[in-house]
Amino acid sequence: MTDPAAIHASALVIDTHADTPQRFLDEAWDFTSPLSLNDKPGGMINLETARLGNLAAEFFAIWVEPTEHAGHFAHRALALTDAVLEQVRRHPATLALCLSPADILAAKAAGKFAVLLGLEGGHAIENSLALLRTFHRLGIRYMTLTWANSSDWADASGIPPTHNGLTPFGRDVIREMNRLGMMVDVSHVSDKTFADVLEVSSAPIIASHSGARAVTPSHRNLTDAQLRALADRGGVALVNFFPAFIDDAWRLAWLSLRAERDAMFAAEAKPFRDAGQPVPYHVATRVDHHFTARIPRPPLASLLAHFEHIIGVAGIDHVGIGTDFDGIPALPQGIDSAADLPRITAALAARGHSAEDLHKLLGGNLMRVFAAVQTHAAPCMIAAARPA
Questions:
Q1: 3-class DSSP state for residue 58?
Q2: Of 75, 251, 306, 324, which residue is least crowded by CB atoms under 10 Å?
Q3: Which residues contact 21 (CB under 8 A, 6 or more apart)?
Q4: Rounded distance, CA 100 to CA 111, Å?
Q5: Which domain covers residue 208, as residue numbers?
Q6: Are 273 and 360 in the same domain?
Q7: Phi and psi of 60, rounded to 5°?
Q8: Are residues 44 and 160 in the same domain?
Q9: Is residue 222 within 8 Å of residue 237, measured between CB atoms?
């Protein structure tokens, strides 16, 4: 098979990270609706664009902004989880909640879009293994250990360390995730936390939305040593599409606007904060869009360079797609929504990658790791009660 369109159409395409639940909850937006709604900035993924891009499965990120929701992280996480589950309840003919690789295959066979859940930021479990188990029962199938903030038990990347990696409780969290069959996600963690996770975890790990630091020197990306270590343990790195993580010129331009962005956001957020309310997600999105309009989008080649580098360092069996749709303010040229995912396949095919290799990258590698993590789990943990 050499036709890129046929390669993409025959693949099981999986994206491991989209922040769309914020839209479900804060905007009362529906996944079957057009991307743009009223005066809110348009999104990057809905059911129509997913189908156009042959995207079979999406891990929706349950992300709790730590400042706006301080003191009630779990409450916000549960509300976001409910917002995703409500989408499935409202659209049983087109959406399916999936808890396992077998569920993804069954959804695709039935012509349904596979909805999966990932928890972004370990602060959401509020230092409770009981809450971790509860989120697993609700359908969470990976947890990103930190976000941009360190938790009480794990250090995040890009900020001064608090714990020198994982605390003893953090190590307990990893062991419990292994027991549950929940994938451990090291995107956002510090280098020391990454090393500690590899030491503790007995199952393969993922980086749900991270690129290659050798290509773009962002702390959010993985070093070559980390990519090799992740691959040696059977894991997978899923490439983030955020221009600041894939193109250094764009990253520096974005950083140069930080003071202006912060000032505009503070002004836009003031009415909500004066009223004692959390600032809705679309406010930050609107501010970000204002400034991304001032920076030319990086070429698609910048994104492809990360795929190529990770393949070269970790191997074709250890790379995949983690777009960060709806969680980032811009995308590279040629990618406007999930409908454009076939362009990734076409570009990589043009660079000589085979259909077999592209099928691994587009979803096969993630399916392998997902299955390995669940097989590794305690037998009674593999199946979870499905929410009504």
A1: strand
A2: 75
A3: 60, 61, 62, 63, 80, 81, 83, 84
A4: 17
A5: 4-248+298-376
A6: no
A7: -85, 130
A8: yes
A9: yes
SS3 string, 352-376, reads CCCHHHHHHHHHHHHHHHHHHHHHH
Residue 387: pLDDT over 60: no
Burial 137-172 (b: 16+ CB within 10 A, else e): ebbbbbbbbbbebbbebbbbbeeeebbebbbeebbe
Q: What is the pTM for the complete model shown?
A: 0.95
Is the C-alpha dihedral spanning 125, 129, 134, 135 positive or negative? positive
Are 219 and 277 in a shared domain?
no
For the segment 306-355, what is each residue's pLDDT rounded down to a tens digit? Answer: 999 999 999 999 999 999 999 999 999 999 999 999 999 999 999 999 99
- B/e letters for 93-111, b = 16+ CB within 10 Å, e = fewer, are ebbbbbbbbebbbebbeee
Same structural domain, 181 and 263: no
How many CB atoms are located within 10 Å of the residue 293 CB? Answer: 10
Token pair, residue 2, equals 């050499």
Q: Which two tokens stand for residue 286?
A: 């609107």
What is the reported pLDDT for 37? 63
Which residues, in sequence order, are CB contacts of 62 under 8 Å at separation 6+?
A: 21, 77, 80, 81, 84, 117, 118, 119, 120, 124, 135, 140
